[in-house]
Amino acid sequence: MDFFEQLGPAALGSRLRRLNEQMTSQAAAVYALYHVPFEPRWFPVFYTVASQPELHVGEIAERIGHTHAAVSQVLKELAKHDLVSVQRGEADQRRSIVSLTPTGTELWPALQQQATDVRQATEELLTETRHNLWLAIGEMEYALSRRSLATRVKAIRDQRIAGQVRILDYAPEHQPAFKGLNAEWIERYFRLEEADLKALDHPDEYILQRGGHILLAEYEGRIVGTCALIKMSDDTYELAKMAVSPAAQGLGIGLRLGEAAVAKALMLGAGRLYLESNTKLGPALNLYHKLGFRKTVSGPASPYERCNIQMELLLK
Predict the structure, then answer these.
(1) Measured between alpha carbons, how far is 179 from 199 in angstroms, rounded to an integer?
(2) Separation of alpha carbons 66 and 61, rounded Å
(3) Best label site of 97, 131, 241, 315, fewest CB within 10 Å?
(4) DSSP readout, 114-136?
(5) How many angstroms separate the CA atoms of 244 and 241, rounded?
(6) Domain boundaries for CATH 1.10.10.10 within the chain
(7) Which GO terms describe its molecular function (predicted)?
(8) Is 84 helix (H, G, I), strand (E, B) or coil?
(9) Residue 116: how many CB atoms within 10 A of its CB?
(10) Segment (H or E) for 217
(11) What architecture (CATH level 2) is domain 34-146?
């Protein structure tokens, strides 16, 4: 079975690369028809320079949608073949201005006629297809600019993984995982403090028996995430001891735990959730903002040295 038939749209990038190689190979034959000593990949840069003289390298890259480095490489090759000149600008010595050389100027009319013929041939080619590839490419580029392929794949993956993650209530046998996951991230950035050890070594006494709750995330048979709700008052719970194993990060498990914790707090009658963190923990703070938490300065004095930001989420 053909590779592309087997994989289908999953191989779209490879299929386009094969089409590009086919088109590039045939484009070389087109240049040979016109006896033009020219590489097909030079054309976007050369055409832009010829059409709009004295552009900066960055402006050329912007107009054709290529990187600055890629345009610079092509310009080096064009300059080597005496088709363009690259000179420092008079007003700004840091920016290079590109223009055609006499050789490039002499070549330009032939390339213009060739481009006209190629356009007519390509338009005829498009009429032979049921779907207009040129228009479809424009639609595809627009869709990808609105939402990247990686973002789309991540959403599908996260949705699939979400169905494989189980949110569990804490049981005594979970204490080693509860402590291990939290100790791992705390010691990576800070140090374990006395307040940490009390809650991690004795969660029943310091969290559960005081009206709190602990949730865990199980994925592929392993506990990979934890978070706790510590009762501060009849109306307020602290979201604390949130941790996700490095091996399971990036899978949306932290968000699942956070959402489950908010739902549990509502079930417990909470009107407010409170948390303490540190501003160096960027991904964690992004998660808290996604859950709806906002910075507050009205929290109590923290028992943790590492705390330099307090946040709250009003539930009622």
Answers:
(1) 9
(2) 5
(3) 131
(4) HHHHHHHHHHHHHHTSSS-HHHH
(5) 10
(6) 34-146
(7) DNA binding; DNA-binding transcription factor activity; N-acetyltransferase activity
(8) strand
(9) 10
(10) strand 213-219
(11) Orthogonal Bundle (1.10)
Residue 84 to residue 78: CA distance in whole angstroms: 6
**Residue 129: left if φ>0, alpha if ψ -120 to 50, beta else—which one?**
beta
**CATH 3.40.630.30 residue window(s) in the chain:** 164-314
Two tokens, residue 176: 């080693």
CA distance 106 to 294: 65
Residue linked to tokens 């079975």: 1
Does this model's pTM top 0.85? My answer is no
For the stretch 289-308, pLDDT in tens is: 999 999 998 878 898 999 99
Angle at 232 between CA 231 and CA 234, to 5 degrees: 80
Amino acid at 30: V
**C-beta neighbour count of 39 within 10 angstroms:** 15
pLDDT value at residue 300: 84
- Percent of the chain predicted with pLDDT > 90: 58
> What residue ranges of the chain have pLDDT lower than 50?
1
